[in-house]
Amino acid sequence: MKKLSILVCALSFLLLGTGFNQAPVITNAEDGKHQENLPNPHRHFIKEADFQRLKAQGYTKKEILKAAHIAKFADKKIDDVLKTYKQNDSSWDKTAAHYGLDMKKMKEKCQEKKEKFLEEHKEDVIENVAEYAGKTEAQIKAWADEGIPLRFIVGGAVMAKASNKDIEELIQMKKSGQSYHDIKKSLGLDKAKMHEEFKVLMGKIKEDIKD
Is the pTM of this model over 0.70? Predict the structure, then answer.
């Protein structure tokens, strides 16, 4: 179960956007119960009742997720973090600093954990990405050996599927110097489609690791 929760943390940032700000650390907030609706990552680290309660108070999903992440790092209540956020001109940098945290360092730490986890399960990741993207495992492994991060390969596979493109085209864009977010923006991807494709790929990887 711990591995599955870490997996969601490791991959959800690929779908949700820019680094730390939308890639929260995920914990077993619902008594360790596995949630099947994986594209809703807040369910893995904040109780659904709390999530809905905060939404009813007027907070956006994005605000709740960011606050939950800071709360986790600072060992504080999410309500306190959101209150501090409002008191600090709705600035996440100021909010993090209030609790003695550095946003940049938190982002780097999260990214390191993601890449480490993917590397630890490299064979499962490569096998499933290859099948999902219609490539051979040798092709996927070759890109990884050339220095393309596994997190980009996974995210690239999702973007390629959602945009009806060949992942190889996105890999070439990466090699030319474009970032994941540059490519995502240039493709004009539909978020709903990304969610759906993300669910498919992550479900495949999840099942292999669970076995």
Answer: no
